[in-house]
Amino acid sequence: MLSRSEVEHVAALARLELSEEEKELFAQQLREIIEYVNILQELPTDDVPPLVHVVPLKNVWREDEVEEHLEVEEVLSRAPDREERFFRVSRVV
Amino acid sequence: MKYEAVIGLEIHVELKTESKIFCSCRAAFGAEPNTHVCPVCLGLPGTLPVLNRRAVEYAIMAALALNCEITPYCKFDRKNYFYPDLPKNYQISQFDLPLAQNGYLEIDTPSGPKRVGIVRLHLEEDAGKLVHVQSGSSSYALVDYNRAGVPLIEIVSAPDLRSPEEARAYAEKLRQIMLYLGVSDCKMEEGSLRVDANISVRPAGSDVLGVKTEIKNVNSFRSLSRALAYEIERHVACLERGEKIVQETRGWDEERGVTFSMRSKEEAHDYRYFPEPDLPPLVIDAEWVESLRKALPELPDAKRRRFIEEYGLPENAATVLTATPEVADYFEETLKFYPQPRQVANWVMVELARCLNAAGISITASPVKPQALAQLLKLMDAGIISGKIAKDIFEEMFATGKDAESIVKEKGLTQITDEETIRQVVREVIAANPKVVADYKGGKEKALSFLVGQVMKATRGRANPGLVNQLLKEELSRE
């Protein structure tokens, strides 16, 4: 059962601010989703290897070569705030 | 009560690839902020990471050199946390299927060699760099994403280390191996080698682990052992007072020589790992591993053993000469032109090392190349110059880049081996120092070396010392 405090924990990890009503609502909705997914647990999977990827691909890679970079002005044009060539963000420590 | 420390290290090594791990941006250190970035490493929507093959190759090489088992089927996972050094709000790392596991590294301790376990080695992307700014009443941070996406390997040791010295030896040995492999430049000051330490103490002989703290921000091997020594003392004092150790992350204050609590929110360690859906699994076949294993260069321990056996070097000389592959190569290159291992070893470890230190340059940048050093030593062997003069010439070679022969010619430094010339000087010295001569005759053997010194001085060090000795004795007995 998903408790209200777990919702608060997950919200805090995702940096989401939830109202009391939202906490109730999301707890209820998440419970329903988890219960639904839990139906899958009923299947016997002892002989099934864990699936790590749904696409049947492996080892897609590139050679170690340098290509074009973005222009710094273009990079920073999307920044909410900047200072010289840096992104500027609020205090973090 | 007697306590023992239990230490494990987590070491991050940046791989020396040309491009980043998941995009084609340049991975080099030191560029202007935010100039080595693209939509992938900025985490812009709609982009996809594509793995750099060489990063995997370097990681496998590192794992093999650390005696690890390579995971044949591994994958990448997202490590989720909110911090502005990651533009995507997650770091692509490896969680339950790391690239390699179960290795070890051997270190030298005062009580003999010791095997330190390596729990795992995994591949991940580096994060960007934050600059914290305090200006007046406002404080904020500046972010540079050049480093975001530089390939990293994280190497986690078992808690097998028992002292700050062992921890330092382990970290230094690991760095040495990475330098030999050429997979990283391992510059702590540039952050391409970063060491975090987990430390706890317990009553000696106990097999229960105490509460641990994690030390971050050590920027040299010396700081690592100082920080650990401080932290061990702090833990012991705490326990002696009957207090509990708080499990936390602590920073190292180099100037004050103390560790300090870096309060981090409890929730920060809930990373909610899940498989990275944008990257297919990584399958490493045995053939690939074997071809990389065969191509591994000679590693430090093997090279040191060979230097002892093949060249008859004493153990400490072999250790010094194999400290880096560049020093070892210089030594062996010199031997090709002048096959006298002990003689070459001394010159590399004493004269060359001194000049390199004074100039603050690495051996690869030495103005005196191996062949030039060999030529100098040959001149000395042939008796054309004396050992003392050879040292002066070496300094001159180092300062000017000229070769030994031209310096000898220019300065007229050839050794005087002509008996009559030396005998003349010997007579003059005897005549000028009647008191010392009397002392010598009175049985004071040491007086002779003063006289030898005077002759050498008068000939500006050019007289053959053996001849000087012989002729002085002859002349003195004649009087």
Automatic annotation (TrEMBL), chain A:
Domain of life: Bacteria
Record key words, sorted: ATP-binding, Ligase, Nucleotide-binding, Protein biosynthesis, Transferase
EC number(s) per entry: 6.3.5.-
Any one GO molecular function term: asparaginyl-tRNA synthase (glutamine-hydrolyzing) activity
Known catalytic reactions: L-aspartyl-tRNA(Asn) + L-glutamine + ATP + H2O = L-asparaginyl-tRNA(Asn) + L-glutamate + ADP + phosphate + 2 H(+); L-glutamyl-tRNA(Gln) + L-glutamine + ATP + H2O = L-glutaminyl-tRNA(Gln) + L-glutamate + ADP + phosphate + H(+)
Pfam families (UniProt xref): GatC
Keyword Nucleotide-binding assigned: yes
GO biological process: glutaminyl-tRNAGln biosynthesis via transamidation; regulation of translational fidelity; translation
InterPro entries: Asp/Glu-ADT_sf_sub_c, GatC
Protein task: Allows the formation of correctly charged Asn-tRNA(Asn) or Gln-tRNA(Gln) through the transamidation of misacylated Asp-tRNA(Asn) or Glu-tRNA(Gln) in organisms which lack either or both of asparaginyl-tRNA or glutaminyl-tRNA synthetases. The reaction takes place in the presence of glutamine and ATP through an activated phospho-Asp-tRNA(Asn) or phospho-Glu-tRNA(Gln).
Subunit structure, as described in the record: Heterotrimer of A, B and C subunits.
Family in the record: Belongs to the GatC family.
Protein name: Aspartyl/glutamyl-tRNA(Asn/Gln) amidotransferase subunit C
Upper taxonomic lineage: Bacteria, Bacillati, Bacillota, Clostridia, Thermoanaerobacterales
UniProtKB/TrEMBL annotation, chain B:
Keywords noted in UniProt: ATP-binding, Ligase, Nucleotide-binding, Protein biosynthesis, Transferase
Top-level enzyme category: ligase
One Pfam assignment: GatB_N
Signal peptide (UniProt feature, chain positions): none
Protein name: Aspartyl/glutamyl-tRNA(Asn/Gln) amidotransferase subunit B
UniProt cross-references to SMART domains, sorted A to Z: GatB_Yqey
Assigned EC number: 6.3.5.-
Provenance organism: Ammonifex thiophilus
Domain Asn/Gln amidotransferase: 329-476
